[in-house]
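Tokens for chain A. Residues wanted.
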């Protein structure tokens, strides 16, 4: 019963908020008319029970009432101006001795000011609120201090506190949205780097092979061109999907295709082989206990490592991709036999290899890719080691803890 009531109230609040966002002028007019009607009912005679001078002319009471209610229509667009008009009408009400209850409506534009402006900008509105209180206290001191001044001050303080609270919540929500957007853009930047780098490397390898094959085997050259077309179309499709996520116009971003998993390593390796790099793969059956994010991390690290081999290993290089499942981790190792231009090794566990000691081949143009691989590994408490093994070439080793093992 309580759950149903809470759900109904939340639904009603959501519908009211949506209506307010889509038709703000209608909502503003409805609120102004509501308070005008309520104030006119009070002005028809009820005000005399709280007035210091019940003989105030009815025309003055009615005019003052309308001056304190109708301007509420513009309370969101021009809260300072609306508050100034209401404060002037409240001065007339207090000076005449009518002390209309509509004077408390000054709290509404005050709330909007506190919601949209910093606290130091509320000094001028505070002066406007003090003016009618001071006039009433001076004109009718016997009725003003306890019964009028204190309730008004409490009402205005509550309006300010409520406005500041709403402002703080909105700022925190906006900050969280911006942080989430920045994180998503960083992720998309890594994805685009991996997709573009790998696809262009494969296309370059296919184009070079096709050029050499054209003179001796036109059929092999045609196959290379077909493979270039397939690779480029796949890259364009992935880029369109990623760029769709970046759209900020609120329009549809299209269907998001599933991200690559460990099952997609075979097609990836086949594409690299087609680009001219011999790759030996040792891929055991996929462990579906790994989360999709962890599987994507393994896929991208293998992709980046093979892309670096295509770019920098030189002619005659070969690569090996090996996945190993242990009791508590998955280890992915990509090794090639290419020749490096630098000396020594660079080994990192979430940190960059020391400059000057790592391979110049792998930390120059591929530096951004290595940084992206380390970031991906760190997201899942993994480690990444990049460097030259004793036998030469280059090795990338990723270790990710299994989901059901202690971190």
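Reply:
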């Amino acid at each position: 019963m309580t759950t149903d009531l809470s759900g109904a109230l939340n639904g009603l609040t959501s519908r009211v908020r949506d209506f307010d966002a889509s038709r703000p002028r209608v909502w503003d007019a409805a609120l102004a008319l509501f308070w005008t009607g309520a104030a006119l009912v009070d002005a028809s005679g009820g005000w005399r029970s709280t007035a210091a001078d019940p003989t105030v002319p009815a025309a003055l009471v009615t005019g003052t009432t309308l001056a304190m209610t109708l301007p509420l229509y513009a309370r969101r667009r021009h809260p300072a101006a609306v508050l100034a008009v209401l404060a002037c009408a409240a001065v007339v009400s207090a000076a005449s001795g009518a002390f209309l209850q509509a004077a408390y409506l000054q709290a509404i534009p005050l709330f909007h000011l506190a919601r949209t402006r910093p606290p130091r900008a509320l000094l001028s509105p505070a002066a406007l609120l003090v003016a009618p209180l001071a006039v009433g206290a001076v004109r009718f001191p016997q009725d003003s201090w306890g019964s009028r001044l204190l309730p008004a001050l409490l009402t205005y303080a509550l309006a300010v506190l409520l406005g500041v609270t709403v402002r703080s919540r909105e700022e925190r929500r906006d900050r969280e949205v911006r942080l989430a957007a920045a994180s998503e853009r960083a992720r998309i930047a890594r994805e685009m780097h991996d997709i573009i780098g790998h696809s262009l490397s494969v296309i370059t390898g296919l184009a070079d092979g096709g050029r050499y094959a054209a003179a001796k085997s036109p059929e092999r050259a045609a196959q290379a061109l077909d493979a270039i077309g397939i690779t480029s179309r796949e890259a364009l499709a992935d880029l369109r999907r990623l760029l769709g996520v970046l759209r900020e116009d609120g329009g549809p971003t299209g269907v998001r295709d599933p991200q690559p998993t460990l099952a997609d390593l075979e097609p990836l390796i086949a594409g690299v082989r087609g680009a001219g790099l011999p790759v030996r793969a040792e891929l055991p059956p996929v462990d579906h206990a790994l989360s999709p994010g962890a599987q994507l991390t393994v896929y991208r690290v293998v992709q980046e490592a093979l892309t670096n081999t295509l770019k920098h290993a030189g002619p005659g290089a070969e690569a090996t991709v090996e996945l190993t499942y242990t009791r508590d981790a998955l280890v992915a190792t990509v090794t090639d036999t290419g020749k490096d231009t630098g000396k020594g090794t660079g080994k990192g566990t979430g940190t960059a290899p020391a400059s000057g000691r790592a391979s110049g081949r792998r930390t120059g143009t591929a530096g951004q890719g290595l940084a992206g691989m380390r970031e991906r590994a760190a997201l899942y408490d993994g480690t990444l080691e990049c460097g030259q093994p004793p036998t030469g070439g280059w090795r990338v080793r990723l270790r990710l803890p299994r989901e059901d093992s202690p971190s």
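The chain is about 60% helix and 10% strand. The first helix runs from residue 2 to 22.
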